[in-house]
Amino acid sequence: MKRNTSHASASDELRISRRKPKTGTLGKALEVLDVIALSEKPPRFTDLLGLIDQPRGTLHRQISNLVAEGLVSVNADHSYVPGLRLLKLAARSWSGNSFRQLAEPHIARLHDETGETVHLGLMNGLEVIYLDKIESKQTVRMHSQVGNASPLYCTGVGKAMLALLPEEDCAARAAEFDYVRHTETTLYTPELLLGEMAEIRSSGISYDREEHEPGIRCIAAGLGSLESGIIAGVSVTGPAFRISQDEMTAWKSLVLETARAIESDMEARLGPRSQE
Amino acid sequence: MKRNTSHASASDELRISRRKPKTGTLGKALEVLDVIALSEKPPRFTDLLGLIDQPRGTLHRQISNLVAEGLVSVNADHSYVPGLRLLKLAARSWSGNSFRQLAEPHIARLHDETGETVHLGLMNGLEVIYLDKIESKQTVRMHSQVGNASPLYCTGVGKAMLALLPEEDCAARAAEFDYVRHTETTLYTPELLLGEMAEIRSSGISYDREEHEPGIRCIAAGLGSLESGIIAGVSVTGPAFRISQDEMTAWKSLVLETARAIESDMEARLGPRSQE
DNA sequence: AATCGAGTTCCAAATAACGGAACTCTGAAT
DNA sequence: ATTCAGAGTTCCGTTATTTGGAACTCGATT
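Output (structure tokens, whole complex):
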């Protein structure tokens, strides 16, 4: 005789949903991995002991397991770095990602037509994760940002994606950001951010007016839907010294067309059956 | 007086020495993740149940934990794909990798001088993992292989790295490969493979004469050392229809110089102190 | 309505993780 | 050379998590 145990009881969950998914041992191991991955310098055992609230013996075993599994490598000087297995796992995940595959020709075309750097981003919680990128010609840095995450509130694709959400969700997320005023023009309060939403919603286009990095501008469009479970965005990015705001605006229809084209491919290929 | 607890009886141990690092819960979770990452099509719950020897309830919880941690995502149709968190972790691991950073300018120069695709690979067990790549100009596929793994025996960098090992280690690995004859010219036995080693050792250069993929040729040099704990390699790859074997050979000194230059940077920057 | 298949939940028993303390190693100070 | 301090590692009884079988729910099919 089973009753409704009701996993998500209304009152309990109001507080804070951060960092309490109760994933047991796995969660603890990943906390360690996260700390190692996020460290600027490869941490040594004692560094980790200070950063993670675990007894010596326990932490040591956790790290040992991570090392044994190849998720973490240990240098000669006993400092720890993320392991190659992560790269391997991520590479498979990336190259097999059907959404990315589907979007690739479209962003390639957008790149050909604009000649500037093009990004494909995916919404993930309060961040945008860059799934793909095509660099402008001779830029030195390569494939740098694939897999990188940025906050939603200060990026072109991020704002475009926010605007796709129902207003209540949008406002809820706006309230959750840890706003950092990266530049003069950063929208650093929920009010400023929400103030742009109406315009983005009606035009389908959002701009990053050097809001995240000085000298970097971008035009973006959101795509996807809640039903499909995919909220994404495409953008064209360029240096402010070469691309004026007006030139950005001129790409509006190209960017919108690209977003619409990806969406129609999504319907065609992901809709009927979730075939790869 | 270690007691053999239960499942792994003595006779089983003889079978296969692979996959027995005893990493407890973490290992089991990663086995699931591996299966999901390696699947061609996103598996559904029942598929996984067939592929992994675990009872329903257990497997379900393991997957739930992976999902809760963001290592796995679940599609609308209950099929599972690797999660975005993997990309994020790997991106940090990649961009923070000090060896890659150090090698980057050198392979960039090699690319400029040859005009062809250049790879940086790292030895990992019986495989080479590509740490970085600079594509030839207008190639369509981008950052495709970073993080990808290939067998040592049929790639240019792989053979070059093998040749750096002491002969006994080299022979030991040669005996362990699961040889697949990818093309006509694949070295598909330990004897064929070891037969090339002397030449590679003396010249410092190895060739992939369409041994992995038809129509793809490459010249490579190994670098690093056992003491440093890094065994790596650089290569220039090109299509056979455009690049003759002689043209490849002409790059010999460029490739060697690049390898030596990276090595001297390693000594300078990784040697004194493992500073990032 | 009944059946089947797929996915999900539950709980006592089994097992793996915990954590304090003891041990070893390394390099610096005496 | 000896001592010492700090870092890293191992051990083992206790504790908490994982396990795995079975029961349950939901949807599609007959």
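Residues 252-270 of chain A form the longest helix (19 residues).
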